[in-house]
Design brief:
The chain is built from 7 helices and no strands. By secondary structure, it is mainly alpha-helical. The protein has a domain of about 80 residues: Up-down Bundle (Methane Monooxygenase Hydroxylase, Chain G, domain 1). The chain is elongated and about 85 Å long.
Length: about 170
């Protein structure tokens, strides 16, 4: 693109914008509003303006309210929410046992201890399926999570019984 000097005179002067309907330039209107706001703040606060709070200030409990059980240990309102909270607690416990199981396989612990953990996981998953029976239909993500836990526990049991974790 070539710069043509004959078209440069059509551009407004640098630092100003085309006139607003009131006759002032847009830059002038903003300056006036800013000056009025500064005067108002100085008159109210004695010269210094307090910094506005950051977005979301006072909402530290926002994440906690999204978690099962709510913020600050608030009890669920309905019976369904209480059951859902208990199911999530059981899932968390099952995942903790899975972590312990994986650590036992990776360390020099006995295979008997690992198998007892695997039995515990299997029992926990069966209990979860029983406790969350009605909730699974209404919560597809819970159903998916429980299916994954069931698949994981059955797969690990098959691998363990097949001898995949025997020391060589």
């Amino acid at each position: 693109m070539k710069i043509r000097p004959d078209l440069l005179n059509m551009l407004p002067a640098q630092g100003t914008m085309p006139a607003a309907p009131g006759g002032q330039t847009k830059t002038g209107v903003f300056d006036d509003i800013l000056a009025e706001e500064r005067l108002r703040v100085n008159a109210e606060g004695g010269g210094t303006a307090a910094a506005p709070p950051p977005p979301g200030a006072g909402r530290a409990d926002l994440v906690g309210s999204m978690l099962p059980g709510g913020a600050g240990g608030v009890k669920p309102v309905s019976a369904e929410e209480a059951v859902l909270d208990e199911v999530f607690n059981q899932v968390s416990g099952t995942l903790n046992v899975l972590d312990e199981y994986s650590l036992s396989l990776g360390s020099a612990r006995s295979l008997k201890e690992a198998y007892s953990l695997l039995d515990d996981i299997d029992g926990r998953v069966a209990g979860l399926e029983k406790d969350a029976g009605a909730l699974r239909a209404r919560n597809p993500s819970l159903d998916s999570l429980l299916n994954e836990l069931k698949i994981l526990s059955v797969t690990e049991k098959i691998k363990f019984n097949r001898g995949d974790y025997l020391p060589e």
